[in-house]
Amino acid sequence: MPKVTFLPLNKTVDAPKGETILEVALSNDIPLQHACGGFCSCTTCHVFVKSDPSQLSKMDEDELDRLESVGKLTENARLGCQTKVMGDVTVEIVNLDE
């Protein structure tokens, strides 16, 4: 089973293949914001992929548009609600209020 490490908490949890980063976080009491409920309508579940982005689903057009609209699109930026886990990864939780 894949593992996801959440920084800065440095907490590693099992992640059923195909679940989103948000689903993994919620099922393991990881505090990942999700104001829109996981419908790609906001960016509160924004994360930075720190290792092995090839182990995640490809970014679709909706996710790309959402990240671009708030000026947060970088090479390693993803939305937790849209990003499915396929293998071991490390992500950093981003607080956009900082």
Features:
single chain; 98 residues; alpha+beta; Ubiquitin-like (UB roll); five-stranded mixed beta sheet; 16% helix
Report the sheet-strand fraction: 15-25%
Here the CATH topology equals Ubiquitin-like (UB roll)
**Total individual domains:** 1
* N- to C-terminal distance: 34 Å
Mean of residue pLDDT values: 93
Describe the structure.
The protein has helices at 21-27, 61-69; strands spanning 3-7, 11-14, 46-51, 77-79, 89-93. By secondary structure, it is of the alpha+beta class. Strands 2-1-5-3-4 form a five-stranded mixed β-sheet, with helices on one face. Strand 1 (3-7) and strand 2 form a beta hairpin. The radius of gyration is 12 Å and the shape is globular.
In short:
The protein is an alpha+beta fold and 98 residues long.
Layout of secondary structure:
Elements: E1 3-7, E2 11-14, H1 21-27, E3 46-51, H2 61-69, E4 77-79, E5 89-93
